[in-house]
Amino acid sequence: MEIRRELGVHDVQSCIQTWITVDPQGIKIIETDTGEMVGACGFVKNNEDIAFLGLYCIRSKYQGYGLGIHVYNAAVEHAGNANGALNAVPGKLELYRDKGGFPVVETEFKCLKNFTTDHVDPRNLSSAIPKDVSIEAVQDHHLPALFDYDYSVVGFERKFALALNCQEKKSRTYVAMKNGACIGFGTIKTSCLGAGRVGPLYADDSAVAEVLLKTLIISLPNVKGLVMNTVSTNISSKKFLKKLGIPLKEELTRMYTKERIDVDTKKVFALFDLNLTPF
Fold this sequence. Notes:
This protein is an alpha+beta fold.
């Protein structure tokens, strides 16, 4: 987390701990003989078929010595034959495509990094939700419905990670329920730079997503700004960001080692994490 803060990245320590629990060997580090961490690279197995590459970093004073390739190779070896995915920063697409083993380039959307260090006013968001829908703080009895809904959105099982996600410190998770079924859910956490980071945020309906987002922001006061990483094809999420005054900072290109993961991005209002899982 010190290295990520040094790079100005809004990662969340508890989120990384969740995915280390899911895949204890998923993040590799490189360190000096005296035990100082030089850098890291994760290729976390979400399951046996899907892995995600991220957290690739080298401490600034050790950059330029060719150390990164060693920790990168160790992470790639761990992923094995899983379909790997990553979000390439600008200028790195060709490197990952031609030399990194990620030949499949997503052309339908970009992943968007949006954040501000300024205070955001949740009153700018609507409180109106469809009839018979309730927004509730997540409890154990909600989890089966939440798991089913997540599977319906992303297409693969993440029960263990989601259960841990709901237990993380300095975080809040809310579900949208209708007639006993989950029709959306969202989480907000505190980033290593002190901002509130929303993700995941999924819903069938944009009105439900907006109220979930408003509820999440209200539930975690006294943070230094807001982070919300989105997909370019979700028009409603762009409207929410505009209402809150959160600017776009960077566009990332999704890439795969084998094949695209096809998801209805209209239901994805905020990504779970840019470095640990596809959506």
